[in-house]
Structure formats: C-alpha cells, structure tokens
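ok trying again, last paste got cut off:
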Amino acid sequence: MPQQNRREFLTTMTTSMAALAMASPGATHAFAAITPRTAGIRFGTQLNAFPIKPNDFGTFLSAIDQARQIGFQGFEAGFRFLQPQFASPEMARTKIEATGLTFFGIHIFLADAGYDQQTRVAPQALYEEVAKGGASLGAKHLILSGLPALTADGLKLKIDNLNKAGAFAKSAGLKLAYHNHWPEAESKLGEMEALYTQTNPELVSFVLDCGHAFRGGLNVPAFIRKHSHRIAACHLRDYKHDASGGIHLTTLGTGDLPLKQIADTLKAVNWNGWAETEEEREDHAQTGAEVLVPAYKAMKEAFTS
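nice, full thing came through this time. structure:
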C-alpha cells in the first residue's frame, strides 16, 4: 500500500472524524483512534460477532457501519448474511460501497454434513452460486472452509477441487481463498503444507486462521515466513489454555496466541494482505462492538508498536 500524501491523509482524517461524530453515545467512537496503518497491511473483521439476520439487510448494514466506526478498513461476511440479496444485488451493492469499506470476501462455512464428503469442501452448486452472488455485491474473494482430508488420495482430491473452485471463482471475477480450521493443522497427512504447496497459486490463495493453526499445534510465525506469498488474509483469534488442560476462545490479546510475534513476522516479510479479527465464542454470543473494540485495539497495538 503506498504511503498517503498529505491531502490523502487529511481526507482520511476528516472522513474518520465524521464517522466518529455519527457514533451513538456510549458506542465505539472512544476507541477508534486515528493512527497511521502499517504500510501494506489493512485491518478488517469477520462479521460473525454481530447479530445479523439474513432476511433483514438493515442488520447487515448496521454491522458494517459499526465496523467502520471502530476503525476497520474492510470486512468479511458469511454467505448466509447476503444470500437473499443475490437475486437483486444493485441496491445492496450501492449501500455497501457507500460505507467506504472494502468487501474483502464472502465466506462459505457449513456444518460438517453440509460439505461434499468426497471433496471436503462446499458442493460445487453452492460455491458457484455464492461466487456469482458475491461478485455481484462487490466481494473481492470467495472464501471456502472445509473438512480435513482423511487419506492421501482424499487430500489430492481436495487439492484438485480447490483448483477447480479457484478457476470458477476467477471466471466470476473473484479470487479463491481457503480458510483452515485446527484439524487441518493437526493432520497427520501434513495437510496445511500440502494445500499451500500443491494448489495452483494462480487459482488458490489462503486465509490463514492463525488462531486455529495455533490451536492445532502449528508454529504460526514459521509457517508465515515460509508461505506468506500465498496468504491473502490472516484471521486473528485468540485461545487461552486453562489449568485443567483445556483451551477456549478469548478476546484477542488476552490469550496465548503469539500475536505480537505474528505481527512482527508479517511486517518483516513485507506482507501486504488483510489482518482480520474474528471474535467468535463457544456459546455463540454475538455482542458486536463489545468484543470487537478491544480486539481491534489489541490488533492495532500489535502491528503498530
């Protein structure tokens, strides 16, 4: 990302001040400090922390407006939040673009039974529908989660199908990014390494979920140093180990994730992707800004200190 010139900085500052002025009393404006970004790295958020109703587009717009007020530059959204807009996307796209936020990606995450049990990713008909719908709404990436492969042949099939999905996404005007969970990091097949080295880099990139990878035992900074050229975004979620040997999600910056080391590594390799918070909870609580404000603060401090 090029350095801002003085006029661009003043424009950004004015826009940010206007956004903060519109924030409701007691909302997020007290935390949205205007500070320079780390060159090349943009801050975004997955919207799962917000109580969005798929059939009420106003709740989606409220979520991204709150994300803007907090200070995020872009967002990632689950496909169900936007699926009702696919049939007539023009008005929705206009309203999304009016926020000034980048629509980084539309994400397909399913219950285990919803995935194609052979390819271990979303069924082709679904990812094609979401790719076309997401593109019509201004998304930049189609993001796929999936199941871990069970055999070496199954892993090859998954890789082949990610390449296939990537080709379709490209034809729709999007880039494909695969998002890992902890089972891929735990895989005895070396799945994370295989996905990053054996998929076609022209068709497949990655959203490295650093929290899931950490939970699965991966040395996240070392993995980043090796594979940063394939990473379009990093999800930053934090886990805390407890005295009984368990592990649970906690607010970013309050757990055991080596957040500062991850940030320093990304800066050291001159990475220029998206750092995204993902403040999910085991109890599925969706408290929006309440959890995203401290997560944003922790992320900003890690990357700018």
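cool. The first strand starts at residue 42 and ends at 46. The domain at 37-304 is CATH 3.20.20.150 (TIM Barrel).
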